[in-house]
Amino acid sequence: LTELSGEDGKKCLRLEHLDPRIYDHIEEFKVKCDQRFGSTSERTGLEIAFEKYDPDATGIISTEKFKALCQEVKITDGVHRMVHYYDPHSDNEIRLEDIDKEAAEMNEKAREVRDKAAHT
User: Fold this and answer.
1) d(CA 65, CA 67)
2) Residue 72 and which of 9, 11, 14, 28 are 20 to 30 A apart at CA?
3) Span 83-94, pLDDT tens digits
4) What's the rounded Cα separation, in Å, for the pair 28 and 21?
5) How do residues 31-44 score in pLDDT, each as one tens digit?
């Protein structure tokens, strides 16, 4: 494989180079989440969508819920590829962290704030 330079100058391979089709499906999924659920400077549509499908803010949804989310945002092409990519061992779990690390970190912070508020 050809090595490519990352933003920090280190050698790395990126998904868009290894598998451009799955990369495109994932990017389209994120855009469609923004369109369907809206986005703000503080939260992406993906975060809002996960909140709907993961009300306990665990950062994990089942593959069936992920498929339902894809259907809700009108994604039909590439759903099975994304499910296989995000759940390669068929554990029936898709993690927000695997889709978007920043969104997962924000989700975790929001959960901590809700937990604190519930205990006061």
Assistant:
1) 5
2) 14
3) 999 999 999 999
4) 11
5) 999 999 998 888 89
